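Appendix C reproduces, verbatim, an entry submitted by the partner laboratory led by Prof. M.T., so that reviewers can inspect both the input and the predicted structure.
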Amino acid sequence: MENQWLNSIEEFEKQFDNAKRTTVWEYMDKPDYKKKDELKPHEISNELNRLFELLAESNISLSTLCEVDDAELYRFITEELFQHEMDDIRIPGMMSCFTYEEFHPNAKLDIEEAIDYFFRMTMAKMENIGGDGYDLLYVDTENHQDSAGSKIDKQKVVNCINNFLDSFDKFEVVTYNEKTFEINQEKTDAKVTFTIHFKGLFENSSETYDFRDDGCFKLKPGEYGGWEMYHIDLPGLSIA
C-alpha cells in the first residue's frame, strides 16, 4: 500500500508538471446536457442525478455545505462548474473535489464558522502556530475596534485576549443563545448579539468562576476568505 501511494504521488507530480488546462465539461468528455430553461420543473431532479453520476464516473465530486435546491444546483453545474478550468490530470482513485460554496460563499455560514472556531479553539487555548499566545485565526487584530468604533493597537488586542485566557486553566461554554444576526445588504459587515454563560476553571480544583451576560461580535470579510471579528464584547473580556 505504501508503494502504491508513493507511485501515485510520483505519477501526480509527473502529470502536474506537464498538465494542460481544461474545463470540467471537457474533462468529462463533453457529455450532453440541457440548459435549465429547457427542462420542465419535474424533470430537473432526474437530470441532476444523471449529472452527478457522470461527475462520479469522471472522479469529480461536488458537495454543498448547506441546502441548495435542485434547480439552482443544476444551473450551477451546467452554467458555472462545466466552464470552470482544472488541470487535466488523471490518476486512478484520485478525486477532483468542488463545493458549491467555493463559487458562492455563504456569509451566514462563514460567520457561524468563525464564531464556532473562536469558542472551540481560541477559548480552548489552542496555541498559536508560529507565534506567541493563542490561536486568533478569525480575530482581526489589525483593524480591531472598541465599542465607539475607534481602532485599537494590534498588540493591545493580542495582549488583552491572551491575558484573559491565561487567567484560567480552561473554559467551558455552558450556554450560547443567539439574539440577533445582522448582515448588511452588501455583505461587508455583520453584527451578532447573544447571551452566553461560560465558566473559567482551574486544574485540580473545584473552584470555578461564572461569566454570564450579553455579548456581541462584529465581523467583516477576511482578506483570504471567511469572516473575521473586528470587535469582541464578551463577559470578562474587555478590549479597549
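The two ends are 56 Å apart (CA to CA). Additional entries are available on request from the coordinating office.
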